[in-house]
Design goal:
The protein has 529 residues and is of the alpha/beta class. The protein has 3 domains: 240 residues, FAD/NAD(P)-binding domain; 114 residues, FAD/NAD(P)-binding domain (3-Layer(bba) Sandwich); 61 residues, no CATH class. Helix content is 37%, strand content 14%. It has 18 helices and 16 strands. The chain is globular. It starts with a strand and ends in a 5-residue tail after the last helix. This is FAD-dependent urate hydroxylase HpyO/Asp monooxygenase CreE-like FAD/NAD(P)-binding domain-containing protein. It comes from Streptomyces jeddahensis.
Amino acid sequence: MRRVAVVGAGAAGSLTAVQLMRQAERAGRSVGIWLIDPSEHTGPGVAYGTPDPRHLLNVPAARMSAFPDDPGHFLRWLADRHPHAAPGDFAPRREYGRYLTEVVERTTEACRHTRLHRVRDRVVAARERSSGPVLRLAGGGELRVDAAVLALGNPAPAQDWAGTQLKESGRFVADPWAPGALDALADEEDVLLVGTGLTMVDLAVALARPDRVLNAVSRHGLLPQEHLPDAAPPAEPPDLDGAHGLDALRRGVRRHLAASRRTRGDWRPGMDGLRPVTAALWQQLSAADRRRFLKEDLRTWEVHRHRIAPATAATLRELRASGRLRIGAGEVVRAVPCDDAVTVALSDGRRLRVGAVVNCTGARTDLRRTDDPLVRCVLERGYARTGPADLGFDTSGDGRLVPAAGATAARLWTIGAARRGNLLETTAVPEIRAQAAEVAGSVLKALTGRRASGPTDRYGQRLSTTPEAAELYDRAAALLSARPETVRERRAARRGEDALPSLSAARHSLQRDSTDYLLSLEMRLSRWR
C-alpha cells in the first residue's frame, strides 16, 4: 500500500485528501492517506471555522463546489438543507465548513481501496529518505510515507508594526482567529483594527456594539468592493501579454475594464474575466515588474478582485453612517498601553485612546520570517526555496516543491497560499479545488512504479506481518482509541482476559517486531488506567 501524508486539514488539505481518495479509487489503487492537523475538526480550517452566521462567503454558492468536474455540488448540498437556496446566495461560512466535513466523510465511506487516517497532531519537521519523507510529530514519534502534501493555509499575520510594549500587553490581539482571542475585549471599549481588508470586515461585523467605536486604518485606507446582488457572467478574457512589461499590462487591463463598463454596464464582469489568465500574466512579468506590482498595484487589485457579499457591504455602510466604524489611511507610529487603555499615535496626526488593538494586517508572505517549525525545516534543509518575489514556496507547475540549488528534490508538494509566488491568486476555493485535483494526480503518478510498501499500522509504521494481521491490529487500536474502558475492562485487558478479544487476537497474529508498536500504543493509552 502506498502511503501519502497531507499536512493540514483545512479546506486545501481536506480537498487534497478527497482527490487522492477519489483518483486512487477510480484507478483501483491501494493507498493509505494520513491527514494530519491538531484541530478537532476536519474541513473548515480557519477560513470556514467561524461560528458567526454573519460571516458570509465572498463567492456565490453556485461557484463554491468542492469538485472541478461537478460545479453544482455545493449548491445541491445547500438546497437539500435550505430549500430556498439560490445560485447567487452568499451562504454563511460555517455552512461551507460543514459541507467540507461531509465531503470528506462521504468520500471516505465510499472508498474500498483507500483508507483515510486522521491524525490530530502537528508536523514540526521533515527529512527525506530513499523510501520517502519522514515526518516528525510534535507529540512524539514519526510517520514514514511515500509522499507528502503541505496544505499549511495562510501563515500567521505579521506583527512588525507593533512595538514591544504593545505586543507584551494584554490589550493586543496578535491573531484574531486564534481560539478565544477576542473573548477578553470589553463590550464598551473602543477598538483599533489595523488593516482594512477582509479580516477587518469580519471583525467589524463581529465586534460592533451600540456604544463602541471601531477605528480601522491601513496604509491605503481602501475597503474591499462588493459583489452585485445579481452578478453578470464573466467577460471573455482579454488578449494580454505580461512579457511586454507592467506598464503595458496596466494599460491593457484598464482598457479591458473600461470596455466591460461600456458593454456590460459594470467593471465586475471584466475583472472576473481576468481570473483564468491571471497566473499566466503574473508568470510572464519580469522579476522586477512583479515586485513593482506588489508595491504599487497589489492593494488596488485585491480590493477589486476579492469582493464581499452585498449583505456584508450593507452592514459596513450602516456602521459607517452611524459613526460606529471609522476608516482612515494611516499607520501606527506609536502605541503605549496603560492600565485601562492604549494610546495610539497615527501617521496622519490623529491620537486615539482605545481598549484594544487588533491585528488585521493579513498573512505574512515571506516564509523565511515565519515561526512555523516545519516551514523553517524544509527551507533550512534545502527541500524548498522561497518563491518568486519572496512569496511562499517555489513550486513546479504541478505543485511540487522546487529544492534549493544543489539539493535533491524531496517527494513534497504544496497547495494553496504557499504557491502565491508562482500563481499570485491561489487562496480562493475555485483555485484550491483545481490545485487539489492536479496535486493529487501528480502525487499518484510519481508513486506509480515504485515498489509497494509492506503493511503499516495506523501511525504509518511498517509492520513485518501479513496484511490480515495488520488490519486486525488497526481495528484493535481503533477500538482502544474510541473510548476509555471501565476499570474492570482495563484490568481484564491487562491480564489477557477476553475483555478485548480483537487486541488479543492481534497480539498473536503480529510478528515479533510489531510488539514495540503495541507497547507504544499501550503507553499512549496509559492515561486511561
